[in-house]
Amino acid sequence: MQKSEFTPEEELMIQREFEALLDDYAHTPHRQKVELITHAFNFANKAHYGVRRLSGEPYIMHPLAVARICVKQIGLGSTSICSALLHDVVEDTDYTVEDIAGLFGDKIAQIVSGLTKISGGVFGDQASEQAENFRKLLLTISDDIRVVLIKIADRLHNMRTLGSQPKDKQYKIAGETQYIYAPLAHRLGLFPIKTELEDLSFKYEHPETWQEIHDKLEKIKGSKLEDYEVFSQPIRERLQSMGYTFTLKARIKSVYSIWKKMMRQQCAFEDVYDLMAVRIIFTPNESMSEKDQCWMIYSAITEIYRPHPERIRDWISTPKANGYEALHVTVMGKNGEWVEVQIRTDRMHEIAEHGYAAHWKYKTGESDDGLDKWIQEIKEILAHPDKDAMEFLGTFKLNLYAQEVFVFTPKGEIKTLPLGATALDFAFMLHSELGEHCIGAKVNHSLVPLSYRLKGGDQIEILTSNSQHPQKEWLQMVTTARAKNGLNQYFRREERRYIKHGEQLLEAAINMDKELAANHDEVLARLLTYYQMKQPSELYTQIGQGTIRLENIREIVYPKRSFLSYVPFIGRGTESRKAASATESTEIVKPKKGAHTIVLTDENLGKEYVLSQCCHPIPGDEVLGYLDEKGIMHIHKVDCPEAALLKTSYGKRLYSATWNTHRVQSFVETIELKGIDKFGVFIQVLQAITKDFHINMRAINISSEDGIFKGTMEIYVYDKSELEELLKAIRKVENIKEVKRYEKDF
Length: 746
Description:
By secondary structure, the protein is of the alpha+beta class. Helices cover 49% and strands 17% of the residues. The chain is built from 30 helices and 21 strands. The strands form 6 sheets. The protein has a 5-stranded mixed sheet. It is globular and about 95 Å long. It starts with a strand and ends in a 5-residue tail after the last strand.
């Protein structure tokens, strides 16, 4: 951060931003504590005086912006506003948490302290430790949810000002925002913030694609709003005749959500039909329930427009786990386009905009069961954390973004699980012991295996046996954080039991032989060498499991000295030297110290970088580099899920990368095809590949069933542009219905 005196214009800008904060606060239902907020602002302004951000603006503008997000977009009160204004004071100045407590009270000091612990340098030297910082952030949830809410506001403003950061920092920060902070905002019901975080992350990870979709959206936005006026007019008239006070709003999809739909459906921008949704927010009459009135409005709308029978979403009868309530229906407009209509009461809209967390116990004296259960799950996960922070991060993320499925117990109680959850997930949700002893389940009175994926409306009964115990393969069957955490806890308990049992067995075996007992440490060292292990715990585990027997312990420790007994050792050494030699001959050249950009050329492939197999990048793909512990530079696609993990916790090792290849080397790519199985159609595809493009093929795998063919082809291409031209040509072949580049399913 820079430091210099502020100009009179900057002083005026700071004052105006503070007045805007007070104006936002004045329009809330909170008890007005303007004097306390003014005191916090003056204190923070003095503490940060003269300090500037990388963008050059006064640093105090950042806490002011975070405070405005807290009050305007999350609906928080004076305690949170003061904490947001003061959130960087302890981190960046000489003031302490005790100073804050003396001036502003223990509660504000506690929140500032929580924020300071998880600050962790998103833009600083510790930028690669975000996984561990996130663990610390979650620890604060059970103390005071406002710490997390202010942190999300802090991240939102950092994303809004990310343009002043270097390219490699942009990748890292956008990646962890997409991976953790957007899903966390979603889970806490902060939908507008979640949408903006996703869109900003996408903008910095794929700037050209973002700009292209944004420009197309801007061109048609005017006509879409005209369509909205025509579509909404009869709805407006009907609601007025029903006597409701209401607001109608048009909602245009974000660039990111449009891109996601384009990727999911493999279609062009022009083929995304539901770009607009209409939101009805009404004040319900006290004489009837909110639910009944939402369905009355639904009935009125479907008298005007024909509904899509498979696109009705009832989140009123069963709200989402994050508290979201609404009734969604998709109807056919007069122009032949589908439009989604969202029906909410004022209360439902407040929750949808600000999240249930804004109505937490400290504010209303009440709590939400769904959020309570989620907090309890976090406590359980944190009570038994994985040693690997990355594994912890992945486990936690499982429960953040998943869509939901509703199932019933044998007694008819409704339970909510993430979409894709299995019978085994359900068992662990009920109780860890049920999960550990689960042998199967009955779904709708029929026997199903542990791996059965639950469907909405299933009634499920868990079957158990005391002789059943978890297997490592179960980790591949479960999808929820609770189940994965429960299994990992069991395996850790078992490992500790095996270690203890193995150590007792080894000690007993050693003590039975006086010579061995007299040379205890040497015996242990020789056993580790013999079994090629580094830690005694590995040895104890295998002894405890029975995979290592101790009957011949003396022969292992004191072998007979014959030449033959050393032959295997000589062989291993020779192989080792050969392997070392091979490694040296293909050693990757490390990038120059201080450089955080790598240019990918034909000449330095295999010398300065390798292409990752997980996402299979080729020239033209948007990519980044990751320098591993061995000094090898791995190139990943920017949107590769593996790269998302790296961006979250290894920011210091990330490099921005650009291609500068000249069609010297070709790369194997796989394309997927689907079409109508008519005579000659595949001949035309082969002709496009071999004759028109002169492209060689490596493998073909095609199958046909009921008049539809589908399959894959491995072809050699120089770069992404050549591949896209080829795909475009194949799409023109009659009866080809779908052709796309194969993307690995992670």
